[in-house]
Amino acid sequence: MNMNGMIFSRVATLVLAVGLLGVGGCAATHVAIAKRDLDVQTKMSATVFLDPVAPERRTVFVQVRNTSDRPDFDLQRPITEAVTAKGYTVVEDATAATYVLQANVLQVGKNAPTAAEAALHQGYGGLGAIVMGTGAAYALSGSGRGIAGAGVLGGVADLVAGAAVKDVYYSVIADIQIKERNAAGKTSGMTAQSTLKQGTASEIQVSYDETVDWRAYQTRVVSTANKMNLEFDEAAPALQKGLTQSISGLF
User: How far apart are CA 62 and CA 100, in angstroms?
Assistant: First the structure.
């Protein structure tokens, strides 16, 4: 290749690289505009209806556990305050309560929106392999694909543009159980079955029937927060508010 040919080839490569960087920059600009405001959505997997009771029976025992890797994410206090604001008395003794509200925070942190939605549809009781944890953040667009088919230079464009603009999702997943005390003289029957592992080759089947004074309901609440370059400290109060409103809204 002669000198002119080499110069032309290098110029063409440079122009292509600049063009791809421009495309990456446009994608980053789109995310920066579309995701400039914090968007929080909170959904419940199944509706729970509680029977209305007389004012003197509006007593609730509230117990919130947090088994996620962010034990400082507090729901006990805001839920207690929200339930109290609705005219219920929060008691320390579960045996004296008409309702028992129990919550377990399963996951707090970055998560793919599809994983959070899957957790909601799966409902109370399990997560499987659908939670992506702290590694889920998306560069340039909600699809996370960047500039498809642009090759190595396209990857460089994504890297440069995406380094400054990230489409970030945080989620909180909580399982909820509410027990409602039966009216005086009424009881409920409960049948429980479980499978216990015995080593690697055998299982033990356990079942029992019991008469109880409660009716129990279970559901799951998932709250997600999305914004460009979102940090957890900004997302946490909004996620806490969304979960509190959804859970306390059952009363």
Answer: 6
Q: How far apart are CA 64 and CA 66, in angstroms?
A: 7
Contacts of 228 (CB under 8 A, 6+ apart): 31, 32, 35, 36, 165, 166, 167, 168
Which tokens is 246 given?
């959804």
Instruction: Tell me the per-residue pLDDT of 13-30, one tens digit each, with 9 for 90 and over.
Output: 444 444 444 444 566 666
pLDDT digits (tens, 9 = 90+) for 38-86: 999 999 999 999 999 999 999 999 999 999 999 999 999 999 999 999 9
Choose among 60, 224, 54, 239: nearest CA to 142. 224
**pTM (predicted TM-score):** 0.71
Measured CA to CA in angstroms, residue 215 lies from 19, 52, 55, 78 at distances of 64, 14, 20, 25
d(CA 3, CA 181): 89
What angle (nearest 5°) sits at the alpha carbon of residue 56, between those of residues 50 and 61? 60
